[in-house]
């Protein structure tokens, strides 16, 4: 039975303080540890309609780099000298909200910290018996929905399409390629930054081909991997990859632009693809992708993808870093491409 809104904590004393990461300066180019601080903060008891959560797993994602800038964007920037935000899964320690009880596990957006007091409407209950808690931050979470919506809706994938994915060993890209294969792609090519990742793409995820973009020009490798061209490009990288994909696109190809991580830390304006004029002759379509625009696909996504995960048809990897004190290292490692699959920071069960 769900406790009434007046219910308070479970057994034991509530923590008095917890650590949280603050942005202390706007990074210029690549972020450095000098731009951040891990600080002790008081833990506040929940008011009416709120819950107190002990975070178990934190998510670090490429989009967070954009929130460190003060430039106007689709999401508000992080405030200086305030706790940062990000996806997190945790356990409820205290509740004054209907529908939530101590011991419940929830997904919410107050990551980068050990404890979070938040309005219950900002949290979603998740079931650790249905799937491992980390999957709600990755394969069955925001990255997964991004992959699904970007391929199925934004790129308008059709069976028989040849698909190219950049950043293919990451949480989003690895799922894009696998979904494309499961839905009948004629060929799936992935790009990654190491031979180890290339082996994972073809050996574990079932990509038909994969390239190490650090070994030779992307356009040259893509021509060899997709001699008959591509119909869909899922872009996580931008730059040289985008230019190469445009060159390989077939007539009426589609490009879903999810991210451009190659440009996130640039201090000067980056050039547009030099072959963008091909959009006229090839009549291709290019569209940006924000997962928040496609929340209506969530039930369809969970139903379809969770079945593939349970059956083993869709596999995933996670790179796990332990300790809240190492969250920044995990984020910087993500920007450097040190992860395979979803980058997770775990704070303990």
Structural account:
The protein is α/β, with parallel strands linked by helices and 349 residues long. It is 24% helix and 25% strand. α2 packs across α8 and α5 runs parallel beside α6. It is globular, with a radius of gyration of 21 Å. The N terminus is likely disordered.
Number of strands: 15
Roughly what percent helix? 10-25%
H/E topology pattern: EEEHEEEEHEHEHEHEHEHEHEHE
Oligomeric state of the chains?
A: single chain
Proportion of residues in extended strands: 15-25%
What does the average pLDDT come to?
A: 94
Main pleated sheet: 7 strands, mixed
Termini Cα gap? 24 Å
The value of Rg in angstroms is 21 Å
Question: In terms of structural class, how would the helical and strand content be classed?
Answer: alpha/beta
Shape: globular
Low-confidence stretches: 1-7
Q: State the helix count.
A: 9
Reconstruct the topology from this structure.
Layout: E1 17-23, E2 36-42, E3 50-59, H1 64-67, E4 88-95, E5 105-108, E6 115-119, E7 124-126, H2 142-154, E8 162-165, H3 171-182, E9 187-192, H4 195-203, E10 209-212, H5 218-225, E11 230-235, H6 240-248, E12 249-257, H7 278-282, E13 285-288, H8 298-311, E14 318-322, H9 327-335, E15 342-346
Parallel strand pairs: 8-9, 8-11, 9-10, 11-12, 12-13, 14-15
Antiparallel strand pairs: 1-2, 3-4, 3-6, 3-15, 4-5, 5-7
Quick rundown:
This protein is an alpha/beta fold and 349 residues long. It is 24% helix and 25% strand. It has nine helices and 15 strands.
């Amino acid at each position: 039975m769900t406790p009434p809104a007046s219910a308070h904590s479970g057994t034991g004393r509530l923590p008095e303080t917890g650590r949280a990461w603050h942005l202390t300066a706007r990074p210029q180019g690549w972020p450095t540890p000098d731009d951040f601080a891990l600080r002790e903060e008081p833990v506040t008891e929940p008011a009416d309609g709120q819950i107190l959560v002990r975070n178990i797993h934190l998510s670090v994602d490429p989009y967070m780099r954009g929130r460190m800038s003060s430039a106007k964007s689709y999401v508000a920037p992080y405030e200086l000298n305030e706790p940062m935000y990000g996806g997190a899964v945790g356990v409820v320690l205290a509740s004054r909200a209907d529908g939530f009880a101590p011991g419940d596990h929830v997904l919410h957006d107050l990551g980068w910290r050990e404890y979070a007091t938040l309005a219950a409407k900002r949290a979603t209950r998740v079931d650790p018996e249905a799937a491992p808690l980390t999957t709600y931050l990755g394969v069955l979470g925001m990255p997964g929905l991004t992959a699904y919506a970007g391929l199925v809706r934004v790129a308008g994938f059709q069976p028989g399409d040849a698909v190219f994915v950049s950043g293919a060993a990451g949480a989003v890209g690895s799922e894009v390629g696998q979904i494309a294969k499961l839905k009948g792609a004629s060929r799936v090519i992935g790009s990654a930054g190491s031979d180890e990742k290339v082996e994972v793409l073809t050996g574990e995820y079932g990509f038909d081909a994969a390239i190490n973009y650090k070994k030779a020009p992307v356009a040259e490798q893509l021509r060899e991997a997709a001699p008959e061209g591509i119909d869909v490009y899922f872009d996580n990288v931008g730059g040289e990859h985008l230019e190469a994909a445009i060159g390989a696109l077939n007539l009426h190809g589609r490009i879903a632009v999810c991210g451009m991580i190659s440009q996130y830390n640039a201090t000067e304006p980056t050039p547009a693809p030099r072959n963008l004029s091909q959009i006229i002759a090839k009549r291709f379509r290019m569209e940006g992708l924000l997962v928040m625009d496609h929340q209506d696909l969530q039930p369809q996504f969970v139903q379809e993808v969770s079945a593939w995960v349970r059956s083993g048809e869709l596999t995933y990897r996670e790179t796990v870093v332990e300790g809240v004190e190492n969250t920044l290292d995990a984020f910087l490692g993500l920007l450097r491409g040190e992860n395979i699959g979803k980058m997770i920071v775990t704070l303990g069960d």
